[in-house]
Design brief:
- The protein is about 25% helix and about 40% strand.
- It has a single domain, classed as START domain (Alpha-D-Glucose-1,6-Bisphosphate, Chain A, domain 4), CATH 3.30.530.
- It is globular.
- It has about 160 residues and is an alpha+beta fold.
- Strands 1-7-6-5-4-3-2 form a 7-stranded antiparallel sheet.
- The chain is built from 4 helices and 7 strands.
- The chain has helices at about 35-45, 45-50, 130-135, 140-160; strands at about 25-30, 55, 65-70, 75-85, 90-100, 105-115, 120-130.
Length: about 160
């Protein structure tokens, strides 16, 4: 896989501590669905679609090397590349990193794991402004990033809710 991301700490959302010098975000919610069902929703970009990001991916399922442009508000196309992906009976998830043209620099991970008979969804990210405009608008960017992280967590919980 030829990496096209614009930061050096590739894969840091999957293993070990998040790198210093970046803003870190983590959100965790418990889900009411089997891991395989939640994984299918996550790995096929449906979570992103549900959050209004209209993914345009080079593959139907997240896998290393897959590029995805997240279309937002009909105007922005935010480029990312999947840098790691894993699926097993106890874990499913992926991390994607920012590519040139993204307003931020960093990585975000979307992870599902079976824990004590429950399925837990965790989002982890590290980022910093990647453009002059993002640096100037850093307080607004941080607010929007926190809102987006909460939106992902809530959308996954709602998608997995049992009637």
């Amino acid at each position: 896989m030829a990496s096209k991301v614009n930061y050096p700490e590739i894969g840091a959302t999957r293993t070990g501590p998040l790198p210093s010098g970046y803003r870190h975000l983590t959100r965790t919610v418990d889900l009411d669905a089997p891991l395989a069902e939640a994984a299918d929703f996550l790995m096929t970009w449906r979570l992103h679609e549900r959050c209004g990001l209209h993914p345009e991916a080079t593959a139907d399922r997240a896998a290393p090397g897959v590029e995805v442009r997240l279309r937002f508000a009909g105007l922005l196309r935010i480029p990312c590349q999947v840098v790691w992906a894993e699926e097993s009976p106890e874990f499913a998830g992926f991390g994607y990193g920012t590519m040139p043209g993204h307003p931020e620099r960093g990585e975000a991970a979307f992870m599902l794991e079976a824990v004590d008979g429950r399925v837990r969804f965790t989002l982890r990210s590290f980022s910093e402004p990647g453009t002059a405009a993002a640096r100037l608008g850093a307080p607004v960017a941080r607010f929007l990033q926190s809102r987006a992280t909460d939106r992902f967590a809530n959308a996954m919980r709602d998608a997995c809710a049992r009637p």
